[in-house]
## 1
Amino acid sequence: MTYDHITLSLIAAGAIIMMISLMNFRATIRHSKELFIKTDKRIRFLSISHQILMILFLVGYLVVFYSIVQNVSIFGSALVGAIFFFGAVFVFMGNSLQADMLSSIRHHNDALATRNRQLLQTESVTIFTLAYQAELRDQETGKHIERTSRYVRMLAEELSTLPKYKDYLTPQYIEDLEKAAPLHDIGKVGIPDSILKKPGKLTDAEFAIIMKHCEYGTKVLKIADEKLSFQSFLKIAIQMVQSHHEKWDGEGYPQGLNGADIPLSGRIMAVADVYDALRSERCYKKGFSHTKTCEILREERGKHFDPDLIDAFFKVEAGFEVISNSLQG
Ligand SMILES: [Fe+2]
C-alpha cells in the first residue's frame, strides 16, 4: 500500500465516522427534545452550529479526498490553519452543548422531583383529612389515627425481618400500609351518632349497625380505586378496612375469616387498633396501663390475633408505649 492509499483510506474512514456521528447526533437532539429541553434557545443554537460544523468537516474530508485522487494541491497555510481552528471550535461547541443539555435535564428533573414531593404531601394531607372526619365523630381527636399508623409501621417492619414475610413486606408495601392505616375506620361516617357516641353498652342491633362500618368504608374506597388507572395503596387500604375486625380464630366480622385467610394488612391493623383502644380513655371506660394491655394481647395470641403478630409486638412493645405516651389527646 502506498503512502497515498493509506492517506485516502484514513480520510474515507474519517468521513464515514463523521456521517455516522451526524446521524447519531440527530437522534441525540431528538431524545433531548423529548426530555423537555426543546425550548432552551442556547441549546438550540449550539446544536444547529454543531451540526453545521459536522457537515463542513464532512465536506472538507471529501474535498481533501478528491484533491488527492485528482492530484490537485489544495493545501495552503490558510486551509491548515482553518482545519485546526474549526477543529477546536467543534470540540468546544460539543462540550458546551453536552454541559448545557445535562444542566437543562437536571433542572427539569429537580422541578419534577419537587412537584412529586408536593403531590405526595398533598396525598398524605388529603388522606389524613378524610380519615379525621370519621375520627372526629367518634373520639373527637386525630391522635388515634396518627398513633395507629405508627404502630402499623413498627409491626410491619418487625415482621419483615422474618424470612416468611421478607419478600412480601417490602419497603414500598410497608409505606402503603402506613398510608392506608388512617383510613381503617373511614366507614364510621355512615354510622349514626346515637350509636357511635352512645356511652353505655350497645345492644345487639346497634352493634350490628357498627359492624357495617367495614362495608361502608370498603364501598367508598372501591369507588375511589376504580377511578385510578394504576395500582395504588388503596388496594391495601380496601383489604385493611374490610378485614381489621376479623379474628385469627374466625370469631370476628364481617366475614368471619380465620387464620391466614385474613389479609395481612387486616391482621396488622387489628393489633395496632386494639392496643390503642385498650390504652385510650373513653366516656364509658378508663384507659388501661401498657402492662395490662400487653397482658390482654398475650392472652389473645392465636385467638383474636395472629401469633406471629403478637410475637412481633412483644419485640417492639417499648416503642408502642413511647408513642402511646407521647401522642396523647
Ligand atoms: Fe374499625
## 2
Amino acid sequence: MRVKALGMISGGLDSTLATKILVDMGIEVEGINFSTGFCVTEHSRNFKDEKKPLRPNEALRLANELRFKLHLIDVSKDYLPVVITPKYGYGANLNPCVDCRIFMFKRMRKLMDEFGAQFMFTGEVLGQRPMSQHRQALKTIERDSGLEGLVLRPLSAALLDPTVPEVKGWVDRSRLLALAGRSRKPQMALAKETGLEDYPQPAGGCCYLTDPQYTARLQDFFDHNGKANLTNEDVILLKVGRHFRFSENIKVIVGRNERENNFLKVYENGRHVFRVPEWPSAHMLAEVKGALSPDEVRRLASIAARYSDAEDKGRVAVEHLNGESAEILEVSSIEEAALEAWRI
Ligand code: SF4
C-alpha cells in the first residue's frame, strides 16, 4: 500500500525538516498551507521597509523544492471566532494557539479524507512553544480535533507515544527525531547536514497574533468596537501604517511609505480621508463613529500636516474628504507630544 501523509506546511525550517524526513522514507506527501488572515507572509512586515522585497510564500517555495503538491487554503473568514472567543484562552499576546491548532487540525481531518491520506504531520517540536507544544497541549489538541494517534511529529516523535503510522510500520520510528525545547540550533545543524540551504530564518515570527504591536492594536479594536464586530478588513488594516487612538470614537491610520499609502487608498470607502495635495505626504484615513466636530476635523488635519514635507512650514493646506464632500483647511502640524500620547 502506498502511504500518503498530509502535512501542515508553513515552509519554515521545522516543517521543511519534517517533510524531508518523510519524503526521504518514500512516503507520498501532500501539503496544506492555511491562510488565517493573521499570517505575516500575507501582508508582510516588510510593508514598512520599501527596500526589502515582500516575503514570498515559503510553503510554495518548499513544495517546489521537495516536489510535492501544496494546497493553499483560505480559512480567514471561519478563523475569526477562534481569535474572538478562544475556549483555551490566549498566550502572551492575543494568540489563541491551542484553539488555533484545534481549528486547523479539524480542517486537516476532513482534508485527509478528501485527499486519501492515512495520517497527518506537522513540524511541531515538543516544548518549543509554551502554549501549544507542551505534552498535555499536544494531547488536548489531538483529542478535541478527533485525530488521536493520527498526528505524526517527525522532529519529536521519538519522545512521544507511538502514533498509528509508526505502530502499523508505515513510518520507520527509528528514523524519527527526539528534538525538544526552544533552541533552533539542532534544526539548523540538521539543515546543514542534509544540504538544505534555502529556508527562512528560524523563529522569525510567522503570526501577527504573537506580535506585541499588532496585538496592542487588536486589543484597542476590541476595547472600542467590541470583539464581535471584527472583520477581515479590520484584520488587514491593523497591519498597515501608524495607528493613533485620537478619541473614543476616532482612530487614525497614517501610511509610512508609498507602498502603504497606495494600499490605504483602497480602503477609503466609509472612512474620512486627509491629505496634503501640494506636498509629498502620507495618506491618512480616520475611522469615525458618529459625526466629527469642526474642532476634531482641524486636529485631524493637523496630523496629516505633520506627516507631509510641509510639516515645518507653518500653515499648510490639508484636504479633507468624507464621501461626496470635500473641504480645504489651513492648519499647522500637530504637536509631537499630543501625537505620541495617541499612538497605539
Ligand atoms: S502562533 Fe498563531 S498560527 Fe501559530 S498556533 Fe499560535 S495563533 Fe496559531
## 3
Amino acid sequence: MSDQQETGPTMRRLSQLESVVLWNRARQIKRELKQGVKKPYREVIDISWGDPQGGGIKPLSFVRQVLAACHYPQLLNSDKLPEDVRQRAERLLKECAGRSTGSYTATQGIPYIVKGISEFITRRDGGVPSFPNNIYISSGSQWSLQNIFIILVNSMSAVKTGVLTPVPCYDKVNMSIRELGGVTIPYYLHEDQGWELQIEELNRALESAKGVCNPVALYVMNPGNPTGQVQTRKSIQEVIQFASEKKLFLLADEVYQECIYGEKSEFVSYKKVLAEMGPPISETVELASFHSASKGLIGECGLRGGYVELVNVDPAVMEYIYKLFSTDSCASVPGQIALNLMTHPPQPGDPSYSLYNEETQLIQTTLIHNVRRVFEVLNSVPGFSCQPVEGGGFAFPRLHLPLNAIHKAKEAGMQPDEFYCVRLLEESGLLVNPGWNFEQKEGTSHFRMNIMIKEETLEGVLRRLVSFHTKFMKEFS
Ligand SMILES: Cc1ncc(COP(=O)(O)O)c(C=O)c1O
C-alpha cells in the first residue's frame, strides 16, 4: 500500500516541500535575472504546469470576444465584434441574474449552460442521453473531484477508505484522498507498454488492499497525466467490468479528452462505453466523469470552469452532493461561460467560424508537432527514454541516471530526479516537475514537461535540455 503508513506523512509532505523549494528557487532566479545577475540563459522557461496560455498558446478570439462583451455589455453594440459573438453574449447575459457576470448563479451552474453541457455530452456520446440534473459545474474540475472524494471517503471509520489510483498519478488526486483521511491503493501503469492500464494489475492492487483498508472507488485518467496514454474502448470495457464485479465507484477524469495525438488513438468516454455495455452493468455501475475548460483547444485554466456528470448515483447521495457543491455558492461565472463556449463552438456558416477554425487547427497542429518532436529528440539521446504521447498535456520521459548521480542526490538529501531537476533549473533555466511528485515506481526517475506550448518555445526547451543532459551524464559517468 502506498499510503501514509508506508511512505509516512512526513516523507510525503517532504516531497511536496521539496517541490516548493524548486519553485521558490525558480522565482529567486527570475528576480536575480531582473537584477542583472549573469547566468547562461536570459529567462526561466517554466514547463512544470499544464498551463497552455502560460506556455504561449494564444487564447481563442471567439472565447475572448464573448467574454469581453459579457463583462462589458456596451460592446454588444460594437460592430467590431462579429454578429454571432454579440448574439452569444446577449444570450448568456440574459441568463445571468441582473444581466451581469458579477452575480451569483444557481449551485449547479447557470441552467442554460448546464443544459448546453448535457447536449454536448449527448452529441459526443452518439446519442447516449445526459440529464442536466446529473451535472454540476465547479470552479475547475479539481473542485468537483474533491467533492466526490468527500462523498466517498469515510474519515471517521476505523478501517480507512481506499481508492485505487494510478502510478504515476496527477499529484493533487492522492493528496486530496489522504487529506480526507483515506488511503490510496496504487496500481502501476505499464511504462514499457506505453503506460497501459492492465486489468491484472488492478486485480493485484485490490488484493494487496485486503485487510488493510476498505476499497470503495477506482480513479482513472483518460488521457493520462503525466503519462499521456489513451485507453482503447476494450480497455475501458474491462475497467468498467472490473468496477462492476468489485463494486467500486468509478471516477473517470477525462479533462484531456480533446487532446488526442496518436494516429490510431481516439477518445471514447467512459459514459458512452458504460451505456453500450447494457444492463445490468449500465444501470448499476456508479460513475462520475470530469471535464474542464482548462485544457484542450480552449485552454482557459485561469478562468476556472469544470464539471462532473454523475451516472447511477443514488438519489439520497445526489441530494448530499447538491449540499456539498452549495458550500461554494456557485462556480466562477467566467469559468461557466468558458464551458458554454467550449461545448458550443462556432459552426460552419457562422461569422466567427473561419477564424475559430484557423486558430484551433493551429493549436492542434502545434500539439501534434510537439509530441512528435519530444519523442524523436529525447529518444535519440542516451540516458533518456520516452513513451509516445498519445494524448494529454504532458510528456513524462524516463531518466536513466548514472549511479554516481544517484549517490550524489542521496548525499544532498534529494531524490535522483529532483537532484537532476534542481541542476537543470540552475544551469539551464528550465523548470520541469520531478517524477517523484507523481509517486512513480520505486527505483525509476522521470520528469514531467508541459507540451502545450508554442513550437519555438519547445525548440528552445529541447536545446537547453539536451545540452544540459549531455553535460550532466558526462559529469557523472
Ligand atoms: C488529470 C487532471 N484532472 C483534473 C485537473 C484539474 O483541472 P482544473 O481544476 O483546472 O479543471 C488537472 C489539471 O491539470 C488534470 O491534469
## 4
Amino acid sequence: MTSAADPLLQLRGLSVRYASAGREVRAVDHIDLDLAVHECLGVVGESGSGKTQLLLALLGLCSSAARLAGSIRYRGEELLGAPPARLQALRGRRIAMVFQEPMSALNPYLTVGTQLTEGARRHLQLGRRAARARAAELLATVQIDAPAERLRQHPHELSGGMRQRVMIAMALMCDPEILLLDEPTTALDVTVQAQVLELLHAVRARTGAAILFVTHDLGALASLADRVAVMYAGRLVEQASAPALYTSPRHPYTAGLLRSLPRLDLPVPARLPAIPGQPPDLAELGAGCAFAPRCPLVHDRCASSPPLRALPEARSVACHFEGTAAQIAGAWA
Ligand code: SF4
C-alpha cells in the first residue's frame, strides 16, 4: 500500500556489478535515489560513471552477467527480482525509456509505424487502425510533419533529430508514468538539441510524466530538472535541488563540471577548462575517494572513501572537505 507522499520510484542501496577477467567491476555502487510524481530528476556524470547501467537496472535490462543488489521500488512494489513477465508488463506501459542512439535503438528493417504501434497494440490492446491513429497523433505532438507519411517510412529516411523525436513519441505511446531519458540530446547538433529540450518541456507539461534524465551535460539539464544527482565512478557524490546545485556546488567534481560549461555572462575563452585526468577503472577502485587523483582539494582524510552526508535543504554530498561552495570553486581557479 502506498500513500501520496511516497516516491513514485525509490532506489535503496542499488548496486550493479560484473565479473571481468577475474576482477569485479562496480558499475553502480550503493545508490539511493527517489523520484517523485511529476518530478524531473537529472543524473549527471562523465561516460563510464554508471548512469546508463542505473537506467538499465530499473527496467531489468542489464546483461545476464550483471549481479544486482539492493532495492528498486515502483509505487512500493519491489522490482528487483520480480518475474520477467511483470517487468515486461511495466516496460513501455508504466516506465518507458528513450535510448541513447536512435539509429541503433530503432530497427532498420521495420517501418516507423510498425515500431511505434507495437507497444500500444500489446499493452493497450489497440487494433491496428487505432494504434496508427495514436502514433500519427504523437508524431504531430513531437512536431514531425506529414505524420501519416512518416509512419510508412524506415528510420534511415529520417534525420537524426527526427529519429530522436520518433523515440520520444514511441516512449509516450502508452502514457507512461515515468520516462527514462538516456542522453537524449547527445547525438544531435546544437540547434536540434535545443529543439529536443524544448520538446521535452512541452511533453512534461502535457503528460505530467515523471522524468529521470541521464546525461553527461549539466547544461542540457539546467532548464528542465527539479533536482540533480551527480555520479562519479558508480557512486552518488552530490544531490541537491537544481538551483542549489548550479549556484553553490558542494562537491569538487560538480564544481569542476560546472566550470567546464560555457557562460553567457562571460567572454568565451579560447578553450573551456576541463577536469584534468580520466575517470578511474571501475575494476580498480581502492579504499579511498575515487575522485582523489583529479581533485584540487585532496588531503589525508581522502585515503578513506567519504560517505554521503546530509546537508541542510535536502542536499547531500560525499566529500571530506566541509568548506563553502566559494572555497571549492576557488580551488579550481
Ligand atoms: S573526499 Fe577528498 S579527494 Fe574526494 S572529492 Fe572530497 S576533497 Fe576531493
